[in-house]
Amino acid sequence: MSTNLTASPRPPASPLAPATRRERRRRGRGGRFTSEQRTIISSHQLNSRWGRRIYWAVLAATVVGFTAVFVFPLYWMVTGAMKTGPEFARIPPTYVPSRFSLDGYRDAWRLMNLDRFMLNTLQYAVGAWAFALAFDVGAAYALSKLRPLFGNVILLMMLATLMIPPTVLLLPTYLTVKDVPIVRLDLLNTPWAIWLPAVANGFNIFLLKRFFDSIPTELLEAAQIDGASPWRILRSIVLPVSRPILGVVSIFTVVNVWRDFAWPLLALQDPEKMTISVGIASLRANMPQTTMTAALVIASLPTIVVFFVFQRHIMAGLTAGGLKG
Amino acid sequence: MTMLESTPRGGDRRAARGGRARGPGGGRHGRGGRSGRSRGARLGPAARRNISAYGFLSGALVCFAFFSWYPMIREFVLSFQRNNFVDAPVWVGLDNFRTVLQDPAFHAAWVNTVAFTLLALVFGYLVPFAIALVLNELRHARAYLRFVVYLPVMLPPAVSVLLFKWFYDPGPGLFNQVLRLAHLPALSWLDSTGTALLSLVIVTTWMNLGTGTLIYLAALQTVPGELYEAAELDGAGALRRVWHVTIPQTRLILLVMLLLQIIATMQVFIEPYLLTGGGPEDATISVVYLMYRYAFSYGNFGGGSALGLMLMLVLIVFSAAYLRLSRDNT
After folding, report:
1. Any idea where this protein resides (chain A) (predicted)?
2. B161 and B290, same structural domain?
3. Paired strand residues for B90
4. Percent of chain A surpassing pLDDT 70
5. A93–B155 CB contact, under 8 Å
């Protein structure tokens, strides 16, 4: 029964995983091009004399070009922060800093309140993740499996929010958070201003509900007949088989909070409450360029580390959202 | 669809079973059912299912209501009101729209936003597809190339934008250094009306290229190899194989990505906000940035909401097409 459970929900997170394994095997053995998956150019063509020459030229150009375009700017950023003020302003610039010192980074950390910004952003990301997961999973489960009265209307209204990008609603959302109707609370400059709007994400509902729909109802009915409550069914049957989609939703939510700029710019204007992106941007006029550059490096470290660790999940989640979203 | 029918059936079956169990059990032993069961008898299983369903829904419902549905309505209301948040708001009809339309920056903002979107399409739509085509043919260094192309996407956008602000510096900036090495005249990038918008497009493209590339790459891997085989046998060259096999096979995803990119780039805000402040001479002001300016520089939320409403109506057309496409094909 358990194999049936894990196999049947179509896991949207998988399309890239087999590909990477296949490629590792594909690397030409003994110098000849063989390929398990036929692409535009056949292995036969690549094995001709000119085919080989052109192939290696294109490969070299691509590797060099990509490194120059995507890696070199990052190298420039990391080393730029090590330069002294005069060296930083020199024309033509030095390609390797004359000394490797971390003073720039230390200044940035000390002068720009970066620890505060980092902790704030972490707090917003973790809270948004917890709330989004708890509430959106609950909602998607109710809409998919419990099917209450007006469930379809609610689902339609939640999915309709996908049609309207949040950016165009920035102003009314700001005013709402400033003075929440009925309860009359001002949530500006509190973590709630990030946490609660993160729950109202139609895409999460869409992904989760589509996944829950693919879990066979017979299983849940069997549990129900045995007297399991909806809460117990969610916990012991639905959640364990939904790990892939929960991973995708988690990564999306956390990365979105970390990357977002416009909303925290409006909602968290108090310098003590700012996110790392907004905080650094707010100091851009008052800091020497070397310190600023060091701050940029520090601000990008967390997401880069996350990328190194969860690289495959992130890329797989990307195609899950992009292809089917 | 099967789920729609099967769940109520499950509920009925349960009700029948509950009824049977309660009858003889209660009669034979002369004691009442457990409290849960008697509550069930009063409410009925459908009602109980509804109550627990709304329990699970409540958190998300409240958040959607306050932070998604209500702001949508509020956007409409605000754009027809004059509201200084001290006195009672006054209905002013189309006055806000008139104010915004007469603003010279309004015209500039829309022209820039459309120009930005089109330029970003040329770079950010065609280039990733071309890159994905090449990557899919390569047999080496694929993991590295894929990692590297996605690296900028993982930087927070504010970091990428501020990094490029330094690169665009006419003096020690990286770009003018590259031009000097190539013996080309230096440019003033963000400071000139001629190049400012293009500079913003370059940043956007750099930081978003990886997403499109990886999505296309995944799509290319689903194209059946036999089709290329057949095309080759018919004498089609590499370019004709792209045109007659690859593009028709990936048509859907190409269309979806086109719509998604239009929707995303029309909301451009952070690039002009951090790089140019809308200048020089409104050359880079965008609709969202003008909306921000109305609200937080002029204190005119009515005008800002009117702008937001206009952009919303434009974007809804694209997102409706997108949702329809992805609904029909999942």
Report:
1. Cell membrane
2. yes
3. B82
4. 86
5. no
